[in-house]
Amino acid sequence: MANEGKRVYTWELPVRFTHWIIALCIFVFSITGFYIGNPFMYAISSKQYIMGWMRFIHFVTAYVFLMCVIIRIYWGFMGNKYACICAWFPFSGEKLSELFSVLKFYLFLSKKVPYTVGHHALSGLTYLIVYLFFIFEIASGFALYSVNHHGAIWYILGGWLTGAMSLSFIRLYHHLVMYVLLSFTLVHVYFALYSDSREKNGLMISIFTGYKFSSGKESDL
Amino acid sequence: MKFPSDDALNEASETVEIFGQKGVSRRDFMKFCTGMAAILALPATFIPKIAEAVSGQKPYVVWLEFQDCAGDSESMLRASKPTIASIVLDVISLEYHETIMAPSGKNAEKSLMDVVNNQKGKYIAIVEGAIPLKDGGVYCCIGGRSAIDIAKEVCGNAAFTINVGSCSSWGGIASAKPNPTGAVGVGEAVPGITYVNLPGCPMNVENVTATIVHYLTFGTLPSVDEKHRPYFAHGKTVHDNCERRAHYDAGQFVRQWGDEGHRQGWCLYEMGCKGPVAHFNCPSIRWNGATSWPVQGGHGCIACAADHNWDEAYPFYSRLPNVPGFGIESTADKIGAGLAAATAAGLVLHGVGRAISSKKEE
């Protein structure tokens, strides 16, 4: 095993940067968005500006989030092979069989540890779905924003959605997808810890430093 | 102090005299013209143009009623500035209106057909009520003719059609699920006609008058959005012009009917107010001579001017609609919390499974 114990630079700076900013965005979105949907604090004085600030922070975060999503997708074409957007489309025969073997491993049906440096097929597919949810949140968010912000840019970013769905339902699905993304966060952290403990490749630390430790068994080294 | 509109008012004095002979005071007439300019967001210099336009021609108008409750007719009769009698009937020549016209039966239908045949392409058709298309349109017949048949002839030969109220704009309550009669709005029932939608339940008569005044003044219909609603009336959300908006931004909400916040006039957002999804100029022009409007009266907006509000803005007393496919008691938050809890439970189970399977390995 020539590669055993070798440090592999897996997650490049743009990948780590967008990962953490997106995580922060989801945290901020959830708190401010939940308040906007269901105000849990009440102003004592009319001089306060709670809803105003919540909305302001939500909207500013929206632009930060949009930029991060754009940067990450761009890096999916420009970055290294582990950042490649092709990992999100595991639809080749080989990738599909990998997907099922990972699924079996997670469901205790197999003891074969799926050693990979980058994304294995199941995680790649998960991120595709997560990004589709991200894009839906962006479009529906800007659709709601376009109601009182008239302009081509907001129409392109999501205003067109108001022609296909009523505003009430855009608001409903925008809200429901928050729960989907929060549930994903739970699953994501859990399986990161789980894979770290099973594969012993420094996965948890890699999203801070960028480096993973190879055991020499990885299929995509 | 001299207002820029003073010159404009003097220019229109000749017109005012004509109206004076009809028993309308100069003051009332100029108030009307100024009000119309304000609703249409026109500068004061347009006031004499409006005064001239409304005292000149008298367009023929026919008012059709299909699947309706005559609520829009009621709203029209509530016109106060100007009153329906003093100006609207002098500005337009209302030839046919089933509810308020004197003739009945064949004579009434004759007046309608006289306008359609003699004023082809010149008269204005105002439609109130939805048009049922199911089963050949048998669910609404007047004088032995189906609504769709009448609409095709009358609206098809009109200069343009004004659809007043939600029913004629997009089907209204008649088209709410399950829509047993296949009710649709006039624009959908009679494709190809020129029309303006003035939805609302009922429509606001000030907007109908302003649309006609715009036509008389400029010879065109006001600019409309993709739902054929004029921007001057439906360009902004109720929420953005609401007098309670400051309470929304501050974070002061009514939590229960009759609570302290409700008595203080705080925001009705949490009580299911649909102001944020409704486009209407309700807060600025109000109703019954600008006396009040629903939110001022302490009730949330039900988005009566939004498409399919009976299905999509429903339930009126909760902020989000019901989640499709789940029981009516489920709210989005219950489902979301359930999803998160199920995920957490799944992960705990997985952890237990891991503990068991790793023991087996040893």
Structure description:
The complex is a heterodimer of chains A (221) and B (362). Chain A has 221 residues and is mostly helical. Chain A has helices spanning 13-37, 50-78, 93-106, 121-145, 152-157, 167-199, 203-209; strands at 7-9, 211-213. Chain A has a single domain, classed as Transmembrane di-heme cytochromes, Chain C (Fumarate Reductase Cytochrome B subunit, Up-down Bundle). Chain A is built from seven helices and two strands. In chain A, helix 1 (13-37) packs antiparallel against helix 2 (50-78). The model of chain B has no long low-confidence stretch (mean pLDDT 86). Chain B contains 17 helices and nine strands. The N and C termini of chain B lie far apart (97 Å). Among the domains of chain B are: 57-234, NADH:ubiquinone oxidoreductase-like, 20kDa subunit (Rossmann fold), CATH 3.40.50; 239-312, Cytochrome-c3 hydrogenase, C-terminal domain (Cytochrome-c3 Hydrogenase, Chain A, domain 2). By secondary structure, chain B is of the alpha/beta class. The interface between A and B is large, with 37 and 46 residues.
Question: Brief overview, please?
Answer:
The complex is a heterodimer of chains A (221) and B (362). Chain A has seven helices and two strands, in the order βαααααααβ.
